[in-house]
Structures are given as structure tokens and as C-alpha cells.
Amino acid sequence: MQIGELAERTGASRRSIRYYEQHGLLESNRTSKGWRVYDDRAVHRVLNVRELLGAGLTMDDIRTVVPCLDMKTADFLACRDIPDEVLAMYEGRLAAVEAKAAELARYRAELVERIAGLRAGRQGEDLGDVLREAEAGSAA
């Protein structure tokens, strides 16, 4: 199949497919006219790459699971034919996600505190008006 059909079957853009190929996560053959041609395994590979990118993995991370990328997505999640460093990679990504979640929780707590302070100082006023006033004051 050509790149357009692969894009249509996977929901990935042509640009993304070329990017995956550039990073060694996807292979194609070339026709005499130079067009990329992919086999049916490419569909599973692209779907799995997109799934992993959506889970926060990097292209370098995904290279560690290349032996399993051609599997159907349900089988891929249970793939055991991958190097030992894959577990460490997943744990590292999880630690990064948890650190980001903690950072966002701190931001949220600070915003809640500021909103509570605004509400306490302006009983009976509409919160939207209070926030707009505060925003207008900071812009001046």
C-alpha cells in the first residue's frame, strides 16, 4: 500500500509516517517512481507507535520495543519478546509522568488558594468579575 492508504487506515498523517520512517520505526520499499510502498504489517506498527507516543513515550523509548511493533495492538500490550531495559524505560516514563502530575497538583493548589483569597475578600461579588478585574489590573 502507498503512504496515502496507510495514513487513511491508521489515522496518522503522511508527515508522521515519514517521520516514523526517518527514525527507524517503519520501513518502506520504493517503486520505480520513488513512491513509498508499505506491507500490511505497517498498519499495526503505525498504530502501536501512535499509541506509545500518546502514552508519553519518546521516539528513543519506542525503539526499545521495536521487536513487538508489528503485533496487533492487543497482542502488543502483552508482548514478552522485548529486552529487559523496556521495563526500566516504562518505569522511567511513569516517574516522569508522576513528577509532572505532582507539579500540576502544586499549580492547582496555588490557584485554589488564590481564588479562595479573592472570594474571601469579596463576599457577594461574582467570581468572574473579580478575576476579570484582577486580570485587567495585572495588564496595566
Structural summary, described in words:
The chain has 140 residues and is mainly alpha-helical. The chain folds into 2 domains: 1-81, Multidrug-efflux Transporter Regulator, Chain: A, Domain 2 (Orthogonal Bundle); 84-140. The chain has helices at 3-10, 14-22, 41-54, 59-63, 73-77, 85-121, 127-139, and strands at 29-30, 36-37. A hairpin with a 5-residue loop joins β1 (29-30) and β2. The protein is elongated.
- Count of distinct structural domains: 2
Portion of residues in beta strands equals under 5%
Helix content: 55-70%
- Average residue-wise pLDDT: 86
Query: Oligomerization state of this entry?
Result: single chain
Number of DSSP E strands: 2
The CATH class of the largest domain is Mainly Alpha
The secondary-structure class comes to mainly alpha
Number of helices: 7
Major sheet size, sense and barrel closure: 2 strands, antiparallel
- Please mark out the parts with pLDDT under 50 across 5 or more consecutive residues, or reply none: none
Q: Main sheet: which strands, in order across? A: 1-2
Radius of gyration: 24 Å
Distance between the termini: 58 Å
Which outline best applies?
Answer: elongated
Defining traits:
single chain; 140 residues; mainly alpha; Multidrug-efflux Transporter Regulator, Chain: A, Domain 2; two-stranded antiparallel ribbon
Summarize the structure.
Helix content is about 65%, strand content about 5%. It is built from seven helices and two strands. The radius of gyration is 24 Å and the shape is elongated.
